[in-house]
Amino acid sequence: MSLPLSRRAFGLGAGALLAASGLTLPVRAQGVVKAKMILNWRYQGPQSWVFQAQDMGFLKEEGVELEIDQGEGSAAAITKVATGAYDVGFGDMNALIDLVSKKPDEAPLAVYAMFNNPPFTIAVRRDGPIRTPKDLEGKTIGGPANDAALKLFPAYAKLAGIDPAKVTITNMAPNLREQMLQRGQVDAVFGFVNTISFSARLAGIDPDKDFRFINYVDAGMDLYSNTLVVSRRFAKENPKAVSGIVRAFNRGLAETLKDFDKAVDAVARREPLIKKDIEKARLIATLKAEMSHPDTAKIGIGDVDEARFRRGIAIVAEANQLPRLPAVDEVFSRAFLPPAGERIKALGV
Fold it and tell me: Using an 8 Å Cβ cutoff, are 88 and 37 in contact?
């Protein structure tokens, strides 16, 4: 039996919800729910709150054992949860909107919206001829196949007045993106501002001197970005575990804000080859640029402003010519959020 995860359904309480769906709580000999999670990208500074939640025992306290894998892109994380390969993911809200419109029964559910400022960008060489969005026509833009900015390009093109038929898009491995741009092998590249900037630094490129950024938000794409998602099946079968995961990550973020060096150490335990100074700077830049929307002080990290979110859904639906306009509660549920008083409302950066 299929039961949509609406706010009304979750208002019934876990027991009534499960009874209505024909499901029962899983048998857990030691009270532990095991789950698999896919990140948006490789292990980097901005994943630190996930590992803090794991290393400091916050997930264990919630009765959850989480296996965490590196990701292949924010859009890919949504797909991998939708296919059942993972129970939990950290991926792009706008890729989720697209999937909810097309395949609502398969699409995951957003439960903790973290990146509330849009980071999507197209980077170009500072000494090159591209200075406005219209200058992208006749040019080649490269990006990893699962890059969220690439996936959103049709929506951005419509808002920015670009004819997408006049733009050539090519794919490359993520680790080649910045070098290919610098060498002139492509005219521009898709990505997140911070991802491109810090990957460039790791490759010996100074993004402040060598690159210019054409940001999607400047065309009016005031969208949410990365969010914690869960499969609908996992949410139905384990509502308490989902709430526990969200609480644990909320606590992990609080710990990250207390000590950035300790936070990056948690990442280094998974990937010893990272450059800690770069990852610390990447973490701080992510907090400043991608999580510091004015909404943060009002509703806290994790929640969405419904009017703003509804406008974002409409932007994605219209520009991508989606078959229908999803409702807010089809995409996002606040049923699993901690109380407002426990949410992070100041990042201190």
Answer: yes
